[in-house]
Amino acid sequence: MSGSIGRADCAARDATDPLARVRDRFVIPEGVIYLDGNSLGALPVQTAARVVAAVEAEWGQGLISSWTDAGWMEAPLRVGAKIARLIGAEENEVVVAESTSVCLFKLVSAALTMQPGRSVLLTEEENFHTDLYIAAAAARQCGASIRVVPRQALRDALDGDVAVQLLTHVDYRTGFMHDLAELSAAAHDVGALAVWDLSHSAGAVPLSVTPDGADMATGCGYKYLNGGPGAPAFMYVRSALHTEMRNPLPGWLGHAEPFAFERGYRPAAGMASMLSGTPPILQLAALEAGVDLWNEVSMTAARRKSIALTDLFIALVEDRCADAGFSLASPRDPTRRGSQVSLRHLQGYGIVRALVDRGVIGDFRALDICRFGFAPLYLRYVDVWDAVDRLRAVMHSGAHRDSRFAERAAVT
Ligand SMILES: Cc1ncc(COP(=O)(O)O)c(C=O)c1O
Fold first, then answer.
1. Is 384 helix (H, G, I), strand (E, B) or coil?
2. What ranges in 123-225 are assigned the alpha helix state H?
3. Assembly and interactions (predicted)?
4. pTM of the predicted model as reported, rounded to 2 decimal places
5. Cα(41)–Cα(225) distance, rounded to whole angstroms?
6. Which one of 131, 154, 310, 362 is separated from 141 by 20 to 30 angstroms, measured CA to CA?
7. How far is the CA of 106 from the centre of ligand 1 (A)?
8. Would you say the CB of residue 99 lies under 6 angstroms from ligand 1?
9. Is 364 a catalytic residue?
10. Catalytic residue among 13, 238, 371, 380
11. Which CATH class is domain 7-45+298-405?
């Protein structure tokens, strides 16, 4: 090995890491190096007890009175207010509701309806597929059309017809991070609303959505917020738009007085109006436990460590796997990168599967992306070293060419 970073150097960094002890707040299976927190965050230790309490005490004993006595009714706004602090919004600007896809539909539809006389929803080809499908459907329903352009053509495609610009802040494939403030301002310059998908940003990078000019946003609860599989997503709408926005799925829980059982719909004030049906209380309990971990950690410290971990991974791969045929798909500049590193390799699927066999869990995204997420709350510098060591062993042994990996599993 060239005069490079050794495992002992990494252990020394762990010894002085101010976030090192946060790892103890997570359940990490023995022998596993979990580099997939960008897909499904790890389980916080406190979550199981919170969910058991919600099941046994609140549901089991409190029964229906828990809607008021256990704060179930306020949970979507209460958890929303906690997420607001993490994404740099005002507490009254965020609510937790359904999946990201459904939240996106609601926001995009609401945004298009607020822009009479404009008929185009602008987005980029590189956007996550649910965003593209949902945006197209929402546009169709609102009598608008969708304009999908390559990333580098976004600026030129912003014109006076654009009602809404919908972008994912951190690219799920490569980790490329847009400049949220700059692109929101560009949308505003032509009179468009800026809607953001923050799925790979919330809990991963510092955000100031309100000061930076985002009009609306949504994001997953199960990635860096560690809310558990299928955790509900959040919706953010800047407060200046609250009186004008209309929920396209106006269910009874978004009504000003749900229990008045009025024949006609009257929206609640603010973000409560973006609710539709009964909130998923058990999943909200798990999400709240995950979000509460951030009470102990500053986003600035987490970002500092995330950059250090991703920089270290890139340096080690380029040093120790130099001849293995990888190319870096993520931006080298950490200010343009989320909390993941993606490597391109023609045999990427086999490589990811062979790594999983060796306890290093990342994932694969077609066509050729090996994707590794670095959640700074529970990863150590030695984990990065060990992961690259096992990657090197896979490449040297040819384990990734095993015939078992010729066929892709349903979830990659
Ligand atoms: C950018 C982005 N948006 C949305 C989603 C998924 O949304 P949903 O919670 O509806 O499955 C993902 C899932 O990985 C994603 O990466």
1. helix
2. 129-141, 154-157, 180-189
3. Homodimer.
4. 0.97
5. 7
6. 154
7. 15
8. yes
9. no
10. 371
11. alpha beta
Domain ranges, ordered by start, for the chain:
7-45+298-405, 73-296
- Active-site pick, 36, 197, 363, 383: 197
Instruction: Read off the pLDDT of residues 225-253 as tens digits, 9 standing for 90 and up.
Output: 999 999 999 999 999 999 999 999 999 99
User: Within a 13 Å sphere around the CA of 238, how many CA atoms are in the beta-carbon half?
Assistant: 17
The reply to whether ligand 1 has any atom less than 6 angstroms from the CB of 132 is no
Spell out a b/e string for 177-207, using b for 16 or more CB atoms within 10 Å of the CB, else e: bbebeebbebbeeeebbbbbbbbbbbbbbeb
402 is catalytic: no
In whole angstroms, give the CA distance from residue 95 to residue 99. Answer: 12
pLDDT in tens, 177-200: 999 999 999 999 999 999 999 999
Are 251 and 120 spatial neighbours (Cβ–Cβ below 8 Å)? no
CATH code assigned to 73-296: 3.40.640.10
Cross-strand bridge partners of residue 26: 44
**Secondary structure class of 323 (helix, strand, coil):** coil
Distance CA 227, CA 219 (A): 12
